[in-house]
């Protein structure tokens, strides 16, 4: 059975890019959501094996969504990788203190992305 990945990012082109690469290169089932207000409900419904979550989105930000996921018994154990364009020390510290399983800096290198996925899903 193919593993399911949920990509939550307000940049639809980025979602399409990840979906295409992950389905082609790793044979994963990829679901995308660009609306931060719907992201939590999609995660609860889809119950993915892994979530990629953009931190800076209009509406709910990635930290808000992560908090909601970790407070739900059906989603609290799903690994979440933060996606961010900010690499400052404060952002990285905030990512770590909020319990993300890993983070990637945008623009994302596909090989690094694939390595993170393999490390977490193995």
Question: What is the element layout, followed by pairings?
Answer:
Blueprint: E1 4-8, H1 12-26, E2 29-33, H2 36-46, E3 50-54, H3 62-70, E4 80-84, H4 89-97, E5 102-105, H5 110-121
Parallel strand pairs: 1-2, 1-3, 3-4, 4-5
Helix pairs in contact: 2-3
Task: Considering the chains and any ligands shown, give keywords for the structure.
single chain, 122 residues, alpha/beta, Rossmann fold, 5-stranded parallel sheet, 5 strands, 46% helix
Assign the CATH class.
Answer: Alpha Beta
Total beta-strand segments? 5
Q: In percent, how helical is the residue content?
A: 40-55%
Query: Which structural class should the secondary elements be placed in?
Result: alpha/beta
In the CATH hierarchy, what is the architecture at level 2?
3-Layer(aba) Sandwich
Could you give a short account of the major beta sheet?
5 strands, parallel
Explained architecture:
- The protein has 122 residues and is of the alpha/beta class.
- The chain has a single domain, classed as 3-Layer(aba) Sandwich (Rossmann fold).
- The chain is built from 5 helices and 5 strands; from the N terminus they run βαβαβαβαβα.
- The protein has a 5-stranded parallel β-sheet, sandwiched between helices.
């Amino acid at each position: 059975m193919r593993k399911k990945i949920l990509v939550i990012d307000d940049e639809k082109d980025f979602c399409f890019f990840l979906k295409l690469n992950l389905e082609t290169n790793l044979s994963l089932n990829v679901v995308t959501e660009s609306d931060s207000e719907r992201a939590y409900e999609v995660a609860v419904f889809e119950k993915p094996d892994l979530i990629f979550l953009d931190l800076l989105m209009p509406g709910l930000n990635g930290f808000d969504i992560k908090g909601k996921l970790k407070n739900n018994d059906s989603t609290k154990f799903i690994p979440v990788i933060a996606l961010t364009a900010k690499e400052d020390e404060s952002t990285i510290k905030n990512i770590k203190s909020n319990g993300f399983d890993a983070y990637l800096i945008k623009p994302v290198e596909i090989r690094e992305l694939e390595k993170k996925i393999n490390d977490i899903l193995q």
